[in-house]
Amino acid sequence: MRLLTLLPTGHGTGPGTGAATGSGPGAERADAARNRRRILDATARIVAEKGPDAVTMNQVAHASGIGVGTVYRRFGDVSQLLWALLDDRERQFQEAYMSGPPPLGPGAPAGERLDAFLDALVDRVAEQRAILLAAHSAAPRARYHSGAYQVMHAHVAMLLSRIRPGDDSALLAHLLLGSFSPDLLHHLTVERSLPAERIKAGVRQLLALRA
């Protein structure tokens, strides 16, 4: 299964993302990749410390040690930079559960893989909560039409069909993933101050994933 991302149409990562100016093609690609990684990592640190509203191109340039002109050329504006950050994190998450080491990746029993997936999804939504919540507030139903959601749904439905053959795994997967809506996770973790471990245990108890 190929990776699908949540980056919407029209939200590119700016001209020059694929290659920077330099002496040779190989060096250009490596330099572009390093700059992109440093910019995204710096953006992630700012979001984690201060929230997405605190992100500016100047702050990202300072935190990454890369010129602000390069940041603009790579990503265009703050909106595109934040979408690129979400896309980057989604790619990492997909790689982990589709081809990473068990129990999250292939090689473990379906029940163990589903438990590991749910735990990782709680952590991912908590980590990216502010950006995901902003995207969800802007377009509440867009989540269900994104490539990222479709891949997650197919993965969860596949695991459920192995754990509970004969059940409506496609529907159960939708209901299960509904527990991870950014607004609900925001309410639970921020407004109710529930720890991640309690949420992870509660999802399994609610849906009776274990016989």
From TrEMBL:
GO molecular-function terms, A-Z: DNA-binding transcription factor activity; transcription cis-regulatory region binding
Compositional bias per record (Low complexity), positions renumbered to this chain: 1-10
Species lineage: Bacteria, Bacillati, Actinomycetota, Actinomycetes, Kitasatosporales
Protein name: TetR family transcriptional regulator
Keyword annotations from UniProtKB, A to Z: DNA-binding
Residue ranges: DNA binding: 56-75
Entry-linked PANTHER family: HTH-TYPE TRANSCRIPTIONAL REGULATOR RUTR, POSSIBLE TRANSCRIPTIONAL REGULATORY PROTEIN (PROBABLY TETR-FAMILY)
Composition bias type Gly residues, residue spans: 11-25
Species in which this protein is naturally found: Streptomyces filamentosus (Streptomyces roseosporus)
Annotated spans, Disordered: 1-30
Domain of life: Bacteria
Residues annotated as domain HTH tetR-type: 33-93
